Amino acid sequence: QLTPAGLNKVFFTNSGSESVETALKMALAYHRVRGEGQRTRLIGRERGYHGVNFGGISVGGMVANRKMFGAMLAGVDHIRHTHDPVRNAYSVGQPAHGADIAEDLERLCALHDPSTIAAVIVEPVAGSTGVLVPPVGYLNKLREICDKHGILLIFDEVITGFGRTGNPFAAQTFGVTPDLLVMAKGLTNGCVPMGAVAAKEGIYETFMTGPEHLIEFFHGYTYSSHPLACAAGLATLETYADDGLLTRAQQLGGYFAEALHSMKGEPNVIDVRNIGLVGGIELAPIPGSPAKRAFDVFLDCYDKGVLIRTTGDTIALSPPLIIERQHIDQIIDTVRGAIRRNAG
């Protein structure tokens, strides 16, 4: 009822990281079962975040999450990130420029031969790297290229899933349906560990062709579908429905965007980005001390009773779906004051 059309088979896990590993293994196994076992290559994206397990950090593109852990998985490559401040700074919603960046996938197809590529995994909105909203047409172009070459497209919606962009999933907001959809966090409102992978019917059916008494997909976790997690998930989904929370960002998104973009012109603010109820305020770094300016703002806001998140020198705001306009005002006023107090 909530997932994009066709994504009606679900494999349960215990976290976003586990969900990513599950989706990657599902993609590899799917091609093998279909007789295309040569499709072993996985494509991630620069500045992407897909959890902390080996598969996730391999397809991920955040340097600090990768540099300590050796060579990671073999056969992984990365397309370009979408951040283009020269053309897209202070975009309200989706940036107008950058659909062409998706063509970088064709470069990797030419380099590796598309018949060796199993899947491409991206976050519809790159969250942990600083709220990078996809340019208009970018995700559509990725979908087109994947379809052209028989490559599975995986959306990591651990952050964007369950109402963050104004629809149950960002795939619906952007009008692009992946083959596999990764989720966690909002599935139980973060109160009990749980994650999941939603798969298209055709992927599921591909695994269901063997003898009935044999295991179809040799993968799973001890605590998958744990009764406590399932109870929390059902209660969360019921609350979402009763309170209309999964589309509430459509009602408040405009007000949130206007408040965020009022930060333009404040000391050291060099970009503002937003979609739905998620936003990023990027600050110019202190020379020789990257991330310190944003961290100082974090501490200042914390002292004033507002908890924000920082990633590098970007302030990432992802308020609860129950937020009211006066809370948005409080957050923005507090962040504005902190930025001014730490302008030196």
Structural class, from secondary structure content? alpha/beta
Strand content: 15-25%
Distance between the termini: 51 Å
Helix content: 25-40%
CATH class of the largest domain: Alpha Beta
Low-confidence stretches: none
Q: Any idea what the shape is?
A: globular
**Radius of gyration over C-alpha positions, nearest whole angstrom:** 20 Å
Topology, number of strands: 11
- Which series of helices and strands comes N to C? EHEHHEHHEHEHEEHHHEEHEEH
Structure summarized in a few sentences:
The protein is α/β, with parallel strands linked by helices. The chain has helices at about 15-35, 55-60, 65, 85-90, 105-110, 140-150, 170-175, 200-205, 225-245, 250-260, 290-305, 325-340; strands at about 5-15, 40-45, 75-80, 115-120, 150-155, 180-185, 195-200, 270-275, 280-285, 310, 315.
